[in-house]
Amino acid sequence: MENTETTAIRQISVGNRSLCAVDLPALCGARLHDMPVVLRLLTENVARNMEGTERDAALAALLAWTDTGTSEAEIAYQPGRVLMHDTTSTPALVDLAAMRDTLAEAGVDPAVLNASLPVDVSVDHSLAVEAFARGDAPALNMALEIRRNGERYSFLRWASKVLRGVRINPPGTGIMHTINLEQLATVVTTEERDGTTWVVPDMMIGTDSHTPMVNGIGVLGWGVGGLEAQTVMFGMPTMLRIPDVIGVRLTGALRAGVTATDLALTVTQRLRAIGVSGEFVEFFGPGVSTLGAGERSVVANMAPEYGATTGFFPVDQHTVDYLLSTGRTAAHAAMVAAYTQATGLWFDPSAQPRYTRSIDIALDAIGMHIAGPRRPQDLLAFYDAASTLAALNFQPKAAHATMPRHPVAVAAITSCTNTSDPRLLVTAGLVARKARAFGLRAPAWVKTSTAPGSPAAAVYLERAGLTADLAAVGFDIVGFGCTTCIGNSGPLPQVIQEALAAGTIHPVAALSGNRNFPGRVHPDLDLGFLMSPPLVIVFGLAGDAERDFSVDPVQITGDGTPVYLKDLWPSREEVDQALRQSQDPADYQRAFALASANPLWHDLDAPESALYPWDPKSTALRRPPFAAATEGSLLGAYTAHALLVVGDDITTDHISPASAIPQDSLVADFLVARGDDRNDLNVFASRRGNWEVMVRAAFHSKTLKNLLAPGAPVAHTVHVPSGELVSLVEAARRYKESGESVVLVAGERYGTGSSRDWAAKGQRLLGIRAVLANSFERIHRSNLVGMGVLPLRMPAGMTPFTLDLQPGDRIEVDARAAHIAPRGPVSVSICRRDGRIESFKATAAVETQLEVSLLRAGGVIPSTLHKMMTAHAPQRLVAEAK
Fold first, then answer.
1. Residue 438 contacts by C-beta under 8 Å, 6 or more apart in sequence?
2. 709: which DSSP letter?
3. 201: which of 76, 226, 310, 564 is 20 to 30 A away, CA to CA?
4. Which residues pair with 306 in a beta bridge?
5. Which sign, positive or negative, has the C-alpha torsion 762, 763, 764, 765?
6. Using a CB cutoff of 8 Å and minimum separation of 24, what contacts does 187-195 make?
7. 8 A C-beta contact, residue 122 and residue 169
8. Largest CA distance in the chain
9. How far apart are CA 696 and CA 792, in angstroms?
10. 660 to each of 579, 679, 812, how far by Cα in Å?
11. Strand 196-201's sheet: what is its strand order?
């Protein structure tokens, strides 16, 4: 650090060591306690990583934030590590492999393109629930996963060998966010600077929207798209406007029987109701101290569902206890406590920092909840599924002989959200134990599964004697991965498929995940309720989602005895006792090491060449065309057709689905024509290394309505010049060949959901130059910019419905590069086919000057390639001379 910073350095004593640290109390003075803790962490990051006048200006802006609770200033955030999963890392690493090819073709050593900080990849998003309700399900599902994804996994192993700092956590080691909590997160770490050891906060980013789960133990991290992560991997900071921070003041304590899931769903509803969209959220107040680290992590995990970038809980004794309970050393836990206490980062339950806005939530007023049936923020009492489904007024063509009209087709204990907290899994196991005592089991039409986020869960459930109880009611462990939550639910039971085709049922999913968007869990399921793991078992046992569990029995035993929810729900004392019996800190490291030794993974062959040897016959991995220096900017002044017009809440699942590839789809036809088996096409997410598949997968959702052609088949639109109804890919090809531009028009919250960058890449490949929407979800907006696609916010009061665009209407956009500025105006005109012209000012949904630069360059990849070719021009010239 420079001399001007010496007053902001202090020594931290940890055991017999003296470590340097940024002295936040000295740096911030009296303003420290007015600052939210997340801004204190950003201040530390700026002080440590920025330099000179830019650093001084950024620190001044951070301190001035406390005057108004908001700021327009930009800062550079430099995370210390990156976390990815297999289906976001695959396209990112495919991009890197293709960029290496481009550099090599230009005479530049491809090895210059390398990761400059640690990158962990978790192979967790590809495990499907094929085998279930049987003891050997994990082994069967793992073998199938490796067979289906062998080529892609071999590519990941190549990346880990060739790219510096890339580490792959094999299938079976758990879900990335659980691994982050249990294995990777340090909360506080050390780094060497000019021969001096510094103690610093553990800060990171992840290419998954649920990265904020680690906020539950005081690690500042959030989700970004793969494109933004690529820039960070190359050592560049991520630029952000100093965030607005929403404070959530917690008071009281959760009542007996109420779970962390109930709190998370309540927070989601409350924050969506006040319009949170991209802000940081921080929890404060005395109620925070009543929540353990596992409970906090459940709430933090759902930050994207409540619209936030983070859901942050500062470090306190619960954090230290969690580190010790998961096998971290006492010396490390002591360093975490010493550092955070000395620098003003330790949680004070009586503190009242300044926030942009704040709300109050009384923990003791929260009841048992579910959410749905189509959005996470639609909060219901646990007994309201019956009335909610009844209000849909589904009329079956005929009554089914054995099933109710709203059968539970899938009952899945799934997702890192609610399986990373041992308390929730143990509670579910106790419900299963009581149900087993009554002789209950899920009906044959319910597909049941338990997929914990960590292999350690299997150990502690077994130690508590709960594994056999779960199996007895049908909830055997099926493996350790995202499974149903990410759409890898496998096929529905045959009886459900047949009844669905006959129109006699409208089936429902019950899951402990974080999203229930139509079609997410399974393409044929558009109704789903989110709930805690123990409630999943209750719904699964009932088999009927249209049941009021406040008065209706869960099941009636063979001898006619009704069994009610109260008969199955364990007391707090029972849960506490089972937890004490189940826990051993050594489980976490031991189980992870055993899973990491997965022989099926290590037996995969992987090339070791500097350039990846692409197979031209592959349907899994293809060199993408946009990973080239020749890709130019999409900015400019142009007249465009609307390729698609869609409404509100278009999710990334709508834009780029992850679930099973339908056998009767155009995507399936494309793959079968290239030699794939129509009965074994895997899921869309497994094809993210093949751009030809993914562009055909764009907007492939039967629940998506194209307002330009309301009756169109899936992923079809009107090609205006011909008047024909064609696939999106065909329409895009025709427009490109005739030199015509296209844009997309959408409503509120466009791009909500997962961080998948293919939702933006698919739009780029379809030729979409701009997206006009009422609002954008944060990560998707960033991904659009990263692909060079301009996001534009329409003025208040204007919606896709009020615009009423018809085929033949054209949209003029004046988005010349010199005119684009952060949150600046952009002139747009609607040229009606009858000659009328309607003009308005849209707003560029661009947050920083760096994003403006990326748009002018055509996106992250062309920008990076140009910089590297310029920096290494001498090598290229030497190679050309030879």
1. 555, 557, 561, 563, 567
2. S
3. 226
4. none
5. positive
6. 187/217, 187/218, 187/219, 187/315, 187/319, 187/323, 187/336, 188/335, 188/336, 188/339, 188/340, 189/80, 190/19, 191/80, 193/1, 193/20
7. yes
8. 90
9. 25
10. 37, 11, 38
11. 9-14, 17-22, 196-201, 188-193
The answer to whether the CB of 475 falls within 8 A of the CB of 376 is: no
Instruction: Specify the DSSP class assigned to residue 388.
Output: H
What beta strand segments (E) does 31-187 contain?
74-77, 81-85, 119-122, 166-169
Q: Is the pLDDT of residue 877 over 50?
A: no
Cβ atoms of residues 377 and 752 within 8 Å? no
How far apart are alpha carbons 876 and 869 in whole angstroms? 8
Rounded distance between C-alpha atoms, residue 550 and residue 862, angstroms: 58
State the SS3 of 205-273: EECCCCHHHHHHHCCEEEECCHHHHHHHHCCCCEEEECCCEEEEEEECCCCCCCCHHHHHHHHHHHHHH
CB 138, CB 477: distance < 8 Å: yes
Q: Give which of 467, 437, 475 is closest to 557, Cα–Cα.
A: 437
Name the pLDDT band for 878 (thresholds 50, 70, 90).
very low
Determine contact, residues 527/374, Cβ cutoff 8 Å.
Answer: yes
Q: Which residues contact 598 (CB under 8 A, 6 or more apart)?
A: 142, 170, 171, 172, 173
CA 320, chain centre distance (Å): 26
**Residue 227 contacts residue 860 (beta carbons within 8 Å):** yes
- Indicate the helix (H) or strand (E) that contains 54: helix 52-68
What is the C-alpha separation between 43 and 621, in angstroms, rounded?
42
Which of these, 869, 693, 865, 819, lies nearest to 765 by C-alpha position? 693
pLDDT tens profile 580-635: 999 999 999 999 999 999 999 999 999 999 999 999 999 999 999 999 888 899 99
| CB of 326 closer than 8 Å to CB of 588 | yes
